[in-house]
Amino acid sequence: MATDVRLKEELPAITDQLVETYTECSRLNHLAHEPLPNRDAVADIVADLFEVLYPGYGKRQNLHIGNIGYYVGSLVDSLHDKLTTQIARALRHELCHERDSAVSAPVPEPWESPSEDKPHTDCEKIAQPKAVELLRRLADVRKTLELDVEAAFRGDPAARSHHEIIFCYPGLEAITIYRVAHELYGLGVPFIPRMMTEFAHAKTGIDIHPGATIGPGFFIDHGTGVVIGETCHIGRGVKLYQGVTLGALSFTKDDDGGLLHGNYKRHPTLEDGVIVYANATILGGQTVVGTRAVVGSNVWLTESVPPDTTVVLEKPKLRLKGAKPNTEPLTYEI
Amino acid sequence: MATDVRLKEELPAITDQLVETYTECSRLNHLAHEPLPNRDAVADIVADLFEVLYPGYGKRQNLHIGNIGYYVGSLVDSLHDKLTTQIARALRHELCHERDSAVSAPVPEPWESPSEDKPHTDCEKIAQPKAVELLRRLADVRKTLELDVEAAFRGDPAARSHHEIIFCYPGLEAITIYRVAHELYGLGVPFIPRMMTEFAHAKTGIDIHPGATIGPGFFIDHGTGVVIGETCHIGRGVKLYQGVTLGALSFTKDDDGGLLHGNYKRHPTLEDGVIVYANATILGGQTVVGTRAVVGSNVWLTESVPPDTTVVLEKPKLRLKGAKPNTEPLTYEI
Amino acid sequence: MATDVRLKEELPAITDQLVETYTECSRLNHLAHEPLPNRDAVADIVADLFEVLYPGYGKRQNLHIGNIGYYVGSLVDSLHDKLTTQIARALRHELCHERDSAVSAPVPEPWESPSEDKPHTDCEKIAQPKAVELLRRLADVRKTLELDVEAAFRGDPAARSHHEIIFCYPGLEAITIYRVAHELYGLGVPFIPRMMTEFAHAKTGIDIHPGATIGPGFFIDHGTGVVIGETCHIGRGVKLYQGVTLGALSFTKDDDGGLLHGNYKRHPTLEDGVIVYANATILGGQTVVGTRAVVGSNVWLTESVPPDTTVVLEKPKLRLKGAKPNTEPLTYEI
Amino acid sequence: MATDVRLKEELPAITDQLVETYTECSRLNHLAHEPLPNRDAVADIVADLFEVLYPGYGKRQNLHIGNIGYYVGSLVDSLHDKLTTQIARALRHELCHERDSAVSAPVPEPWESPSEDKPHTDCEKIAQPKAVELLRRLADVRKTLELDVEAAFRGDPAARSHHEIIFCYPGLEAITIYRVAHELYGLGVPFIPRMMTEFAHAKTGIDIHPGATIGPGFFIDHGTGVVIGETCHIGRGVKLYQGVTLGALSFTKDDDGGLLHGNYKRHPTLEDGVIVYANATILGGQTVVGTRAVVGSNVWLTESVPPDTTVVLEKPKLRLKGAKPNTEPLTYEI
Amino acid sequence: MATDVRLKEELPAITDQLVETYTECSRLNHLAHEPLPNRDAVADIVADLFEVLYPGYGKRQNLHIGNIGYYVGSLVDSLHDKLTTQIARALRHELCHERDSAVSAPVPEPWESPSEDKPHTDCEKIAQPKAVELLRRLADVRKTLELDVEAAFRGDPAARSHHEIIFCYPGLEAITIYRVAHELYGLGVPFIPRMMTEFAHAKTGIDIHPGATIGPGFFIDHGTGVVIGETCHIGRGVKLYQGVTLGALSFTKDDDGGLLHGNYKRHPTLEDGVIVYANATILGGQTVVGTRAVVGSNVWLTESVPPDTTVVLEKPKLRLKGAKPNTEPLTYEI
Amino acid sequence: MATDVRLKEELPAITDQLVETYTECSRLNHLAHEPLPNRDAVADIVADLFEVLYPGYGKRQNLHIGNIGYYVGSLVDSLHDKLTTQIARALRHELCHERDSAVSAPVPEPWESPSEDKPHTDCEKIAQPKAVELLRRLADVRKTLELDVEAAFRGDPAARSHHEIIFCYPGLEAITIYRVAHELYGLGVPFIPRMMTEFAHAKTGIDIHPGATIGPGFFIDHGTGVVIGETCHIGRGVKLYQGVTLGALSFTKDDDGGLLHGNYKRHPTLEDGVIVYANATILGGQTVVGTRAVVGSNVWLTESVPPDTTVVLEKPKLRLKGAKPNTEPLTYEI
Fold first, then answer.
1. pTM given for the model
2. Which of B184, C327, E236, F30 could staple E215 via S-S, CB 3.0–4.6 A?
3. Which of A117, A118, A124 should we substitute to test contact with F (largest number of F Cβ atoms within 10 Å)?
4. What is the complex's ipTM, to 2 decimals?
């Protein structure tokens, strides 16, 4: 490259300046700590779980009732190892973080050992039963997912078959990941449930917090922009469309001058059979949408709705302006 | 790993339990069936189609008028093979599915042959002409895309050049995939058109059903959250912004106690030159937005609009609350 | 494959027809031009920048204060080369494009040399100082990002730690990429800033134009569907939720019969400490949301708001319809 | 690139010239035929077989007696499919080849179908039992390999453990691949056995023809340059060193003016317990090295040797030349 | 990891010590020079050349006379670019090296520009005609290779078909690479011919110097250990077996106290139709093996042999030692 | 696939049969043990070592004296971690193996923990100083390699430059890997030195035991088939050609009825400045080839040679047979 050598000479100074910010702005670093859970490993775990939950739809083809036992047994065994390793990393990280926070620990001096053996060992011992318990629950997760698929088929007139739903519907993908992440969340596994749901969020645009409680037969159509908060309670047979927010009404809590971090109920409750149409927003921990209620598109709701009620926007008063508002010249005959 | 061997001993039982659910919840499996279309192969086909439709913008650089014929000829030839294979898989799957549905077939017994030879052969014979027809239509698709690019350039003041639009605009990416998927949809290819548009949906947040009918000069700006339903009719020179839903008004159809699966017109019609601004929602198969009409941001529309009309929300009545609603302490001087 | 040879014989004719469209619809090609910036290379640069900005969170683990200097020095050095190459490609492309536009150049004849040596060399000489300047600014970018992370922690009650925010929050990912892209934009680098923010857009659903001006302590929660236009001014300590549009009010400019391409202020200003809730839409270059104002969910705003004011939708007049609007049979007991 | 466009214009002519040679020198093409066995697929099969034959030494770690059944069951199942596919390709190719040879078929005209359905189906039906039979024999192959490993451990004083032999000894790798390839050869599978042993040849420099017959307890030390011909008979407990050739004495057959293609015995017989040292050459189908005989290094042998005999070169008459034959100046003190 | 931090602290000192050796032992570095040809790029070129020379045997399957033109045209075009780039790198490197050697240049000071523009440009201009000339000669190379394949089929009684030879014979692989490398060598391309033949050497154990001259109909059986020196002349229809060395008799040149670097004839001549059996060694630039002569296995030859002569080792005088020389206990019954 | 389901049903029985052999032939398994060193990780370490030893020749280009410190510092740091991990695995494996051998331990019962924590920790503590010591010695290794490169340049008239030797000569590649492996061998690291030299053996056909002692200025030309035994002593400035064996004379030790495993001197000594030509074989621990002696091609030597002596084969008595021994019809005019 025809580059100027004198400019390149500046790079060491730039490096030094950056390295200085690693002690100044230390919150952006993760130096001299135990390794975090590995993103690729967690993505790999999610892929393996799909193989177990929906055998025949994923990477491995030609599965049949005669070989499925081997394939699943092999996956379950390796999932045991992968889950144990990653859960142990997450637990160890949390331990360190709590310790750091407790004593507001500075960056450790270079002569200090960044890790001691004992927490290392303990974390794997705590992690393994959680990994096994998740695997134990997968059969039940499958039973719930069967109802989710059924609900999608009944709920979308464009669906041609159950196969299409499992293979193509981003809503089911997000729900599946949520259901697994929720089990890990319930088992007290830090970090990884959120990594999993953010993985789904990035792919589908559907952001379900792993802490939310969601009954079977749940269907999200299209889904982009859906947000479901940590303390939502969603009953059985609920259907959501794209852009629906089930959020906190946090800006009413202005007098304490700061946000409470924790699990108090901040997000709404949707009872069995509720339908919420596109881009509706339902906010607040005390807001309850009653059984079989329907919330229309674009509705903004901060209060409870009784069962068997339909809530829609008033027909909007539209301002109509006449005569050719769109005067961009079109490049083709109309 | 310092794991407990006794816990691992439970894994075979967990496997058995999971395998049991493969007969119980059989809708979630794809066992003892012909292979489905392959996701990676379809993604590969889409990538090749981009190379053909926008030569020089993709993987292969240094293309010029002297070598483009070889490159495209080679791609067309391999697209023929790849499309034929995947379309045949989709057709075969549909055949099996119809057969299964017809007789509500149980999981085949292990001693039954999961596939017979004849449908195997036939499907490739049906698939090939569809593959060739798609390739035949690509030249016309390019002519339409030229108008789409032109429309994007005219429609976005931030656009610097046609190159930037082809290279960076997610709206054009989604429209391109839709245009190809729509051709396959029209040729009666099951499954794959939807796989393609979901591929675009995952990447761009724009969800266009392959069944929708869309004229040339179509432009979607930003695009995240756009949903365009299966039976939409969209004219020439239409422009949409992010978050626009062109959906069904299905919750008015409550008396039949179930959704009709099929192709009756459920989604709106947008005539030539219509503009729909961000987060507007237009619903219903009878709703027609007339030529050159403009629908404002956040408008929720379930009735038709005459041509050359602008529809906006009434200026919202805002509740203004005084005095420092946001009391989070800021960490920096204001 | 059991395919019909006669059908395959048509492929050369199809190829010829496609190649013809490469001279007709020449806007869709990039033939006989200098290579564009490479998508994978730009993605690689973004990944390296994350390693430098958040060391220890990315690919390389086991970093500590003793080795971080080597690692970062090595990355800075290779970033210098990669950035110089890609910026030079972008500059060269723009030069060609301007030249082409100026003389409305046709596709060059095959016997014309598509590239000359002089612009080749010059572009790298112009590119290198821009690359070095970006690297020089990274330490300051880190200081700004520290405030962004802090703001996210204070702003989200569900956040457990700073680590979780850096590792899992799509909002921070989009902001980080924006902050780097914005520096390149300010340095007059064409094309690449937009490639970077579209990369973030595809992954997070958050679309921030690299030209926007955004103060420190910026937080976007959930984020899917957020759009921030090119000429926005956003102060310090601002918080946005999913689906917020800060856009142009372009359809008021109907009388000129075409859109002005350029940088006049088309998008709103948000002063320090503003909060905008989910799916709100704020439009127009003259619209100013004053210090510490709060804009409620779903609000559609085209006029300025004074400081310390809360703007919410009037409580919507809801139409309540009684008795079982949702009569889809549920598959489970309620 | 600063290249000359006029030179590039010649490329189409060069292409045409090459394409012409595809009809002239048609032996170097494989056009319009059924696909050959796939190299990568065969390499993949070999890798899977190593996982089955030496579990725990290969890709998959953390195997134990509790999960090995799943892992092997899963491998056996997928090996069944992979072997069936590749064996069918090999059989189909041979059928075509025989047909071609029979009628000295020219390159098929473009309008002729290159494949018909019937042979397609038949080949898989013939292939499957061969694949299953190979899998059935693997347990016995393992018993033989156990003796080979034992022989290596006894035969090499540098060997530290059985583990080292399995993990590091190229001789065992070549023998293992030979043993599997030999079974396929015996089952009448064309092409693939040779692909497998050439795979071993490329990696180890040991070239064992899959047709050779070799007893258990076989050990090759170092191995580079070893050649074992198609019709060799090697007894039990034989040991070879690098560079040993067990070849044909073909140049004695000069009067027929051409080589006989076929399986008549052209290569020597080594009875039980024979040792052959480095670079010895033993030639001829009638040459028999008797039980427990030892052939010394560099010996060239075309006649039989009785049992319990040691054959070494006569102490060579060396010409000694005095005084500093090597006068290259050394760069260091001696 | 449970590692000792104090030990890690030594790493910077170790790094400094290594960096010091980069100025001391500067011959082992390639710092501040133009980039060398890229190994992976050259391997890629070789793979593409195999696709052109043996279409249908390599990566791309389903080739037929209808699409082969596109495929080859596309390959030829990209080979033009790849070859030009790599040849230019090789030429530029040689220029620098010559310049360095001429003035015994020290490592350039950091403030000196390591490259100037002019040689950069020139090298590509010199490289391109060489690249095109190589492509131009490929049709002739194919005609020669047709004779090589024919010779292999006639020469090996174990060969089943021409297909097997092209697909499985390492000898043909090495000869093919040699034939291409030899053309480049003749065109004065430095470095790359040797990289290519070493690539073949690593894979096949056959080491043919690209400078050797070899007639058509050349066959190497098995091949491991074959060495063919730079100034060999090999006629038409020659056959070699494994371990044959055609080398220099360099140790007779002892009186000049150093080796002459250059191209004077150091290696033997083999006239048409010669056969050399396994592990024979033929040395010396004046040694000529006459037409149709045969050199037996293990023969060591430093003098010429007349045409139509067979040269074999005297039947070796073997020492036979009786009674159980091999007393290693065998683990199985004999 | 058109396969027979009944045949597939046999696969579980085949699996069971195989699993049975895992207890019978347990020497071929590595079940329920600590993981072995990882092949890919060791290959990766070797690649990193080449980057450190020959900077600028490998993967990373554009290195110069200004950035080399960062690059090498970063590599040294990660080599520390990788080496520590793999050496610990090797040590742990050896511990287990010794324990197993001592008590001839059966396969552990499923309820026994396969690993205990203490050895786990200890092995990393023993491994780390060995890893650091290797890194510490690399500067000296470089100084030795500088002499090896110099010797190659002086020893091969075909060598054009030092660059060509480092980039293309397999001999130097094998020697480099040997030099590193030898250091590890000397540090008492099990398993990994052999893995490294077998890695070189597979690629170059040169098999140097890591235990051999070899002085600086060592050159191997061509190299395929060279074998250098564990207890060789090779002085300074020695040159070997392809096919040279420096081996044991083990078959004279027949009276003990078994091979002694251990390190007693079994292989020859070559003093300073010795040259050994192609395919010579030198055997025996007592055999000493004196300073500056030359051993000719194909010589078979089991006794010592005085300094400054040349040993060549007696001019072989050749049997010449007249009249056209090679009567294969040639396909071309001679």
1. 0.89
2. E236
3. A117
4. 0.87
